[in-house]
């Protein structure tokens, strides 16, 4: 396995590959590994560009890791880097961003980048509707699509006025998710009182973050659902897939760390008309919460990119990154439906603390914990045929623990 450093020259590797390369963009280990393995199954060559030279995903046998500038701090340098690699490719590459920062960066500079790369997603004007949560919730409101009650105060006085309309707890949620997460290392702030609301609002706005105030729909992780698909330029979905959370970490503000596939056609009935309305094409990862009071699905967000649990559709026969890859190259894509077998995706490094917390709170018994892993499984990091990233990651955790 070759792991490149910033000073290394990728020219020799690129010259040996005489087919279109899939280029993964982003820092997230689970997502990058999942996408790499999706392409590995189809023997598609992969370059993974990441600003972290210690990225454990670079050790996967399915990709070549390349350290690059960070797109948030050095957007021009980042785009220049992509162009410098692109001009050396034997065939146009296909870009697969795994974070909102990367999505924005490549779409802002789409015209220049398309000289060397295919970008299988809608342009920035359309995609911004999904990235900018203020625009997104305005669309949902206009289309009468169920979603959590949301307010966007302009200042403290407006915040005070809407304070009377909310029950606590509620959340202070960013308009731009990725920059907020990079700043505060969380998706949002959960607040329990008026005092906390004002405090966290000021904390966010002091860092020039636009934020919204949003209700929390009741229900634990098992009320969270996902819808995934690739929409072509005719806004037709392919590789439609749905899943349900079993556990998440951290609680409330975290991601699904144990999820399972389900069949819920009503989710597609919500997303497809919306995709057509805004003229979006590309990969979608939509998140829903089922309100236990009404039994109705509320749309939380749509990510216009690959996501961390992309390996679950893969083992159910739905390889969404590869579908996007083929469509970008103008090749025929068959209508793919998932296998009906029961399957699960597990992120053991985070499912373990989630499970222990639930056990301590008497929300999970040992018997239920064991039975929760029944069925066909795929893992966020571990893979029998690609084990090195897991073992290196595990050793790093042990090393960090030894410092306490």
Protein model, in words:
This protein has helices at 11-15, 29-41, 75-86, 100-108, 110-113, 124-131, 133-142, 156-163, 177-184, 194-205, 265-278, 311-315, 320-328, 348-360, 366-371, 388-402; strands spanning 22-25, 46-50, 64-67, 93-97, 117-118, 150-151, 170-174, 189-191, 211-215, 224-231, 237-249, 255-262, 282-290, 297-303, 343-346, 376-379. It is of the alpha/beta class and 404 residues long. It folds into three domains: 11-119, 3-Layer(aba) Sandwich (Rossmann fold), CATH 3.40.50; 149-215, ATP-grasp fold, A domain (Dna Ligase, domain 1), CATH 3.30.1490.20; 221-373, 2-Layer Sandwich (D-amino Acid Aminotransferase, Chain A, domain 1), CATH 3.30.470.20. A hairpin with a 5-residue loop joins strand 11 (237-249) and strand 12. It is globular and about 65 Å long. It starts with 10 loop residues before the first helix and ends with a helix. The model is unreliable at 1-8 (pLDDT under 50).
List keywords for this structure.
404 residues, Dna Ligase, domain 1, seven-stranded mixed β-sheet, Rossmann fold, 3 domains, 16 helices, D-amino Acid Aminotransferase, Chain A, domain 1, alpha/beta, globular, five-stranded parallel β-sheet, 37% helix
In summary, what is this structure?
The chain is α/β, with parallel strands linked by helices. It has helices spanning 11-15, 29-41, 75-86, 100-108, 110-113, 124-131, 133-142, 156-163, 177-184, 194-205, 265-278, 311-315, 320-328, 348-360, 366-371, 388-402; strands at residues 22-25, 46-50, 64-67, 93-97, 117-118, 150-151, 170-174, 189-191, 211-215, 224-231, 237-249, 255-262, 282-290, 297-303, 343-346, 376-379.
